[in-house]
Amino acid sequence: MRHLLDTKHLSREDALRILDVAEDMADTQQREVKKLPTLRGKTVVNLFFEDSTRTRISFEAAAKRLSADVINFSAKGSSVSKGESLQDTAQTLQAMGADAVVIRHGASGAPRTLATSGWITAGVVNAGDGTHEHPTQALLDAFTIRKRRHGADSRGRDLAGVKVTIVGDILHSRVARSNVWLLATLGADVTLVAPPTLVPQDVSAWPARVVYDLDEAIAGGPDALMMLRIQLERMNAAYFPTEREYSRRWGLDARRLRALGADSIVMHPGPMNRGLEISAEAADSPRSTVLEQVANGVSVRMAALYLLLAGAEHSEDTREKETTR
Questions:
Q1: Rg (CA), the chain
Q2: Which pLDDT tens digit goes with each residue over 217-254?
Q3: Which H or E run contains 43?
Q4: How far is Cα 181 from Cα 138, in angstroms, rounded to an integer?
Q5: Which domains does the chain have, with CATH numbers?
Q6: Host H or E run for residue 193
Q7: Which of 74, 89, 107, 134 shows a CA-CA span of 20 to 30 A to 160?
Q8: 128 backbone φψ class: left, alpha, beta (φ>0; ψ -120 to 50)
Q9: Taking the chain, what is the end-to-end CA distance rounded to the nearest angstrom?
Q10: Coil, helix or strand at residue 192
């Protein structure tokens, strides 16, 4: 695997490989010594043009647990804010000897530009670009669903027959887009629920059905209900009458939580707007996988970095030895 830019073009084989390697990484995180020597001598740069404490820290933890050197580069207060271009920044990182660049950018397509421009030889991981995609979030979500469904017997399994309902601000959500493509690739049945104003104009090519009534969707018995954050910072118009009205019609409250099937799980990519798209009761219930998603994110990002930087050099036997030490 050379880069990880999206899930739309990720094959089922590659997706399962990432998830299975993440299982190995998760096993190592239960040990007293969590660090592996796999990426010793490699340099990973976190290049963030947008704020995201959770994702940056998760990638930093993943790289450090693989013994890589980590450079955190925030565009705010840097030369970028003074007008330096993406090309100039990339060439600076190339001169520093970066082996992998984890990039978050407000412009859709920026990671692909970085990966295909020839400015840099490093592997590129998309940590979120505009309203386009956020592939590692979708992978950690799929990992979480698979783990809840199959437990220790997860390796090699896809999500065939699993019903996933994604609720909320689909229009602005790169998480929703990445999840739709990945979940469909893994065999899941995906339903999107949102106010009509928060559904993209043309989703006819998306492998998902769209409904506008959350109660109807819950009655359909989803295995996983994924609540999306309302991205008020990206909204420059009134997409719904009031926050109270949104919460009443599309929020996961105590009543809707009780209506879910006995084995249904509740997911959220974070950060949560408690009381808006999800109630405190739902967020803190035993059904909630929010904290599991955070922990699983480190394992999935360890797997992505491993496959980018060492996967071609290390055989499966070598990885087995390293992860079982």
A1: 20
A2: 999 999 999 999 987 655 555 677 788 999 999 999 99
A3: strand 43-48
A4: 9
A5: 12-134+293-323 (3.40.50.1370), 135-289 (3.40.50.1370)
A6: strand 189-193
A7: 134
A8: left
A9: 25
A10: strand
